[in-house]
Amino acid sequence: MKLSPDYRSRQARADYVDCRLAELYPETPVPLDHKDAYTLLVAVLLSAQCTDKRVNLITPHLWALAGTPEEMTRVPVEEIQRVIRPCGLSPQKAKAIAGLSRMLVEQHGGQVPRTFEELEALPGVGHKTASVVMAQAFGVPAFPVDTHIHRLAQRWKLSSGRNVVQTEKDLKKLFPKEHWNQLHLRIIFYGREYCTAYSCDGKTCEICRRFWGKESDRGDAT
Predict the structure, then answer these.
(1) CATH assignment at residue 63
(2) Residue range(s) defining the domain that contains residue 204
(3) Active-site residue, 146 included
């Protein structure tokens, strides 16, 4: 497919995505149910290789056991694992939840830290998880890249990155910093609703049609 003349530059495509997704999704609720930074942190950890819908079904049972770091330190790892088993990877996740809860109590006064460095030092917390917490719990500009964002950035040629690290760098250069926190959710929403891995082949959804039209060569993208 060949890019439409108005969208041959990467920045033009980014500007359109930013504007159109704001129209489609003026509200950007966090998909994971939570009540504070700690419960968001745990929910994001649980969402690895698991759907948000399933996580939201499981977390009320976990909060019934313990809803704070202090309470969680008193719950045996085996009990945490029993509750979160439907989320998958339960041995690793249960160990991480127990470990990060203990570290929060021992090193941070029971509070979730507000820096990337401190968050990423917690067991089971990588850069994406830290970015979600910084953005959605504390309002710090971040651009967490999940599989949907990585896929759409490639499909729309907003990034040439072969991994999420490069994709995040490319997207941060294209979009205004003050839009990052809402935009990463909007791209996720759009990727789930319209531009899925299976329902859109790069020319089916509204944005793909606008960018690519009906031609047969993508080679002129910049």
Answers:
(1) 1.10.340.30
(2) 5-28+144-212
(3) yes
pLDDT value for 202: 80
Indicate which residue of 15, 33, 146, 203 is catalytic.
146
Known catalytic residue at 177? no
> pLDDT tens for residues 118-171?
999 999 999 999 999 999 999 999 999 988 899 999 999 999 878 999 999 999
Q: Which of 128, 157, 169, 203 is catalytic?
A: 128
Split into its structural domains, the chain has a count of 2
- Residue 221 lies inside a defined structural domain of this protein: no
Token pair listed for 185: 């959710």
Instruction: Assign residue 6 a region (left: φ > 0; alpha: ψ between -120 and 50; beta: otherwise).
Output: alpha
Closest CA to 37 of 80, 74, 69: 69
Confirm if 180 and 141 have CB atoms less than 8 A apart. Answer: yes
Q: Based on the domain organization, do 54 and 23 belong to the same domain?
A: no
